[in-house]
């Protein structure tokens, strides 16, 4: 109801049948949809049921005064955003108008009203209403983005901090663990750089400051570069990636770095929303002088209601805050902008929720190689004996392995799991005394895992510690309600970790 005035809904409230009919006829002829009410009670009920964009409200009503109806509409959270244009043929003084506006009315007109004046006032208020809704939506998106940004920056900072702490405690003969810690720092630092680069790229494109360095770009070359950028997340999530390229050489006239970024972002997106052990396929074909790239997965899919906005900035289809992984809702927006700069198009299709999705990119080619494949398995970690028996559950292999290493060097026996299902099974067999449980897991939330674990035999005395990038008071309350004993915000403070794992 906010695309234009022809789609806007007006509630016309007047107990005078003739006056109500005349105003409805004027507004309908102007392309507006109109519903009617003959009393204040009817008006309040219609506002709740139909949520019109504007209420054209007469002052003299048989049951409730128009000013009181306006006040009730504006005080109710469900109807407070509805615009109110009050009219009156009886209350004609400036004091009446001031009283109505102070009571919440958005405008006030004295009757009789010329048809052109009525239509102009209604349209002006509807325009203001659309701007106000857009501002509210922008403000909501800003708040959501800032919360997600804080979460995503904390995720790589956790393993970086733990790796640094591990390096500080390791002796000179622990070369393998030192190398593992150094690799973790490099990987997660690269991830932070990627987040910042995406933010800067979007800003540059929106300001028209980005230019493509066009040159002949060979398909297999930028596909290979894209595969390298997503290899860590593919390995960590144990995804099987299949790549199929045309047998002939395919060359585009474009920016090879940006073309690799397009493919890399789409592969990264597929990896984020595909469960551990899932399948991802990249297929490239030629359609006359057009290269068609299809990136398919068997992940969570895209609901039909989200397909139209999935390429918007900061949008994440089927977004569940506790399951956001490595993303700010920038990647797909950046893909769309870069594809369009290359004279191409991008679209998404999905059979529905839980049935995977396919992103299709179409790009012009200059002319019409062996396909590359990658299928990796994630490393597993296990602990040594001593101290507490601790289960670490985190879908980030780096986060889990660094926390595991810190706990092992402190003398604890540690086991790691990367999904909620595996964690529940591990808790049954391993009988941990402490469980560090990430909230954002690929198959279920940490809250669900905690609730199920608490129902297992002999789990009452186990210390459950929530790990999350979200640290607001509501997050702490949710963790407590789910059965957690403690709530730690990533990156974990080593002193807090030591305090939780030191026997009294």
UniProtKB/TrEMBL annotation:
PANTHER family documented for this protein: HYBRID SIGNAL TRANSDUCTION HISTIDINE KINASE C, TWO-COMPONENT HISTIDINE KINASE
List of residues that carry 4-aspartylphosphate: 58, 438
Assigned keywords, A-Z: Kinase, Phosphoprotein, Transferase
Name of the protein in question: histidine kinase
Keyword Kinase set for record: yes
Source organism per UniProt: Noviherbaspirillum suwonense
GO molecular function, one term: kinase activity
Domain Histidine kinase, residue spans: 148-367
Enzyme class (EC, first level): transferase
Response regulatory domain: residues covered: 9-126, 389-504
Substrates-to-products reaction catalysed: ATP + protein L-histidine = ADP + protein N-phospho-L-histidine
Cited SMART domains: HATPase_c, HisKA, REC
Keyword GTP-binding attributed: no
């Amino acid at each position: 109801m906010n695309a234009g005035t022809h789609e806007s809904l007006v509630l016309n409230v007047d107990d005078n049948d003739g006056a109500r009919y005349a105003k409805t006829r004027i507004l309908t002829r102007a392309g507006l949809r109109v519903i009617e009410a003959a009393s204040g009670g009817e008006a309040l009920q219609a506002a709740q049921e139909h949520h019109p964009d504007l209420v054209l409200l007469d002052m003299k009503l048989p049951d409730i005064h128009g000013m009181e109806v306006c006040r009730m509409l504006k005080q109710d959270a469900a109807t407070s955003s509805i615009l109110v244009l009050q009219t009156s043929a009886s209350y004609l003084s400036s004091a009446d108008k001031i009283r109505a506006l102070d009571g919440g009315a958005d405008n006030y007109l004295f009757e009789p009203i010329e048809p052109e004046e009525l239509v102009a006032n209604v349209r002006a208020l509807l325009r203001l209403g659309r701007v106000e809704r857009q501002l509210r939506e922008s403000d909501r998106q800003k708040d959501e983005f800032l919360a997600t940004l804080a979460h995503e920056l904390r995720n790589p900072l956790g393993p970086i901090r733990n790796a640094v702490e591990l390096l500080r405690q390791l002796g000179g003969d622990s070369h393998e663990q030192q190398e593992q810690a150094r690799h973790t720092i490099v990987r997660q630092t690269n991830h932070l750089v990627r987040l910042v680069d995406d933010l800067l790229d979007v800003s540059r494109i929106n300001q028209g400051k980005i230019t493509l360095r066009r040159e002949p770009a060979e398909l297999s070359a930028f596909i290979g570069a894209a595969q390298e950028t997503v290899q860590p997340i593919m390995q960590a999530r144990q995804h099987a990636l299949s790549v199929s390229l045309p047998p002939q050489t395919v060359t585009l006239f474009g920016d090879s770095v940006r073309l690799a970024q397009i493919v890399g972002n789409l592969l990264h997106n597929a990896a984020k929303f595909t469960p551990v052990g899932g399948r991802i396929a990249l297929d490239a074909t030629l359609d006359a002088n057009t290269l068609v790239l299809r990136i398919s997965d068997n992940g969570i899919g895209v609901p039909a209601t989200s397909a139209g906005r999935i390429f918007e900035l900061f949008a994440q289809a089927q977004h569940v805050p506790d399951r956001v992984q490595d993303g700010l809702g920038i990647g797909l927006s950046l893909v769309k902008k870069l594809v369009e700069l290359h004279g191409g198009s991008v679209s998404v299709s999905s059979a529905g929720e839980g049935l995977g999705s396919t992103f299709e990119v179409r790009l012009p080619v200059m002319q019409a190689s062996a396909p590359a494949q990658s299928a990796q398995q994630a490393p597993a970690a296990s602990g040594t004996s001593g101290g507490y028996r601790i289960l670490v559950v985190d879908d980030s292999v780096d986060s889990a392995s660094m926390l595991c290493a810190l706990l092992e060097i402190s003398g604890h026996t540690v086991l790691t799991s990367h999904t909620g299902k595996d964690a529940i099974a591990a808790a049954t067999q391993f009988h941990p005394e402490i469980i560090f449980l990430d909230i954002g897991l690929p198959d279920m939330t940490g809250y669900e895992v905690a609730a199920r674990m608490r129902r297992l035999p002999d789990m009452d005395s186990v210390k459950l510690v929530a790990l999350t990038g979200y640290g607001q008071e509501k997050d702490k309350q949710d963790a407590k309600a789910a059965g957690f004993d403690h709530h730690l915000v990533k990156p974990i403070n080593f002193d807090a970790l030591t305090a939780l794992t030191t026997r009294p």
